[in-house]
Amino acid sequence: MSDKNATIDDTPLLSVRDLSxxxxxxxxxxxxxxxxxxxxxxxxxxxxxxxxxxxKSQLCLSVMRLLAESGRVTSGSVLLNGRDxxxxxxxxxxxxxxxxxxxxxxxxxxxxxxxxxxxxxxVETIRRHRPQPVRLAREHAAQLLAxxxxxxxxxxxxxxxxxxxxxxxxxxxxxxxLSCEPQLLIADEPTTALDxxxxxxxxxxxxxxxxxxxxxxxxxxxxxxxxxxxxxxxAVMYAGQIVERxxxxxxxxxxxxxxxxxxxRSRPLLSDARVHPLPTIPGQVPRPGEQPQGCPxxxxxxxxxSICHMAPPPVHRVAPRRDAxxxxxxxxxxxxxxxxxxxxxxxxxx
Length: 350
Ligand SMILES: Nc1ncnc2c1ncn2[C@@H]1O[C@H](COP(=O)(O)OP(=O)(O)OP(=O)(O)O)[C@@H](O)[C@H]1O
Ligand code: SF4
Ligand SMILES: [Mg+2]
Fold this sequence. Notes:
The protein has 15 helices and twelve strands. By secondary structure, it is an alpha/beta fold. The longest helix has 18 residues, at 196-213. Residues 1-8 have low confidence and may be disordered. Adenosine-5'-triphosphate (ATP) is lined by residues 23, 25, 30, 32, 50, 52-58, 68, 70-71, 106, 288.
């Protein structure tokens, strides 16, 4: 292989840079995603973890350009194969969705069209991706439904989504997302509402999609066990920002950010669960409209210093593809310099 090709292959499939998303509300702007940068390399599974309200879903929906009416991406870029999705016409973006990117939505009803049967939706997607007679596409659709744990697939093909339970809709949506063999699959908590056996089956299917079609996966979950099991890399989100990025094993072995450490401590351990109450992270995720000055985690951080109240921490490169935003990682001299800078700005503003 030539050097030129090697460079192209090394380019991440998805490269999000400095993405910010804001919602208009009666109480003013809500900054749901704040300058997020994240890469999803080809054939890798990148996990996103973070407490409820940290911006995981809005990040995914920004990439898909499927934000609610009041939401808008205000800055940044979303490169898929080097092409900025934010610059595409609506028609071009519709073609990208379902052919190059598919999403399993956190809320299953969002991903399914109530006007068409499960079979119509699956058969259309399959035939768009690989032209073939309806009969064959329908057989493939039934196989896909069986693979996501649906017991009577041919019967379900003729049902409308609103007739199905939440768990069943979620499985249909997973089948629909996998049916087009996407280059990038965005899975937003794909296994909530499913029992443990089906969860394991779905995780196997996602791994198979990666292995068979080379799909890359952006995988959002609250479940650290799932992150450890299937992800190559992981990004930790807090208050609309990525506060730590790391290869998955290094994150569990040596978390760099106090928020990551707190999340890992709050993980249920089977051996301890019956004896000790589970630790929780004291305090609340700040409301997106009410971000504290400085580091957004400072009101809850056991390690907070005075600089943390004044200035947002810079991104600190810990190792290749490993970084964290925390003043603890900066030298004392850099912290002192930043303190002086904020004091000087304060004087100038008086
Ligand atoms: N339509 C909207 N209007 C105003 N604010 C919104 C809207 N949708 C989301 N937000 C805000 O964006 C923030 C991030 O929401 P998001 O759904 O991305 O959280 P999340 O990390 O996916 O949480 P969860 O784990 O509960 O799914 C929320 O705190 C919410 O207040
Ligand atoms: S920057 Fe300060 S407040 Fe923020 S996580 Fe690090 S130590 Fe805690
Ligand atoms: Mg969410």
